[in-house]
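Q: I have 208 residues here and want to know how they pack in 3D. Can you give me a structure?
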Amino acid sequence: MIKILLLEDDPVLSKTLIKYLSQENMEIDWAKNGEEAIDLSYVSRYDIYLFDINVPLLNGIDLLTALREAEDFTPTIIISALQDVKSVTKGFIAGADDYVKKPFDPEELLVRIKAKTAQLKERLVLGDLEVDVAVREVYQNGELLKLGEVQKSLLISLMQNHPNPVVKDELLLLLEKPTDLALRVNIAKLKKNLKVEIKSVRGVGYKI
């Protein structure tokens, strides 16, 4: 079952979405303002966030920014009546994975939710390494490892593309402060922590 945190202050739309998505075997927690949403995000784990922007107390953009700064990378779809380029851009800069403009067909939203959560069901295995992508947990020889979120993201990308390399520009996007030096340092730390071989492919990027 997909678990969703819905941030929306419109009760009619919220109840419509809850009824529709519940029929698709999805569980929805409804927050009417940003403060409720951030509290719920601390006590429960969600597969995806659906955030409106203009909501009371704490708007969806500021909430998403705070969550990303706290290394919460739960896939997020912005649902908003704001359709100007500036608002859409702000959503993606804050860390949104998708942006749906109101009014929308619930079926369209359902398709986008399924697309964003399908990848979360993956379980990656390579040698003695295993990654549960849904909960972003890394195991080696069955033992849970403690890795930072950036290193986890790099590892998942490398394992998903194995045996092919991942281009450097894609890996840079996973860093908080993307520089060539920061990437080399994080790759070095990953190799040290996991004792795995990660090769630099000249002119391309890295592969595991």
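Q: Anything worth noting?
A: The two ends are 32 Å apart (CA to CA). Residues 2 and 26 are 5 Å apart (CA to CA).
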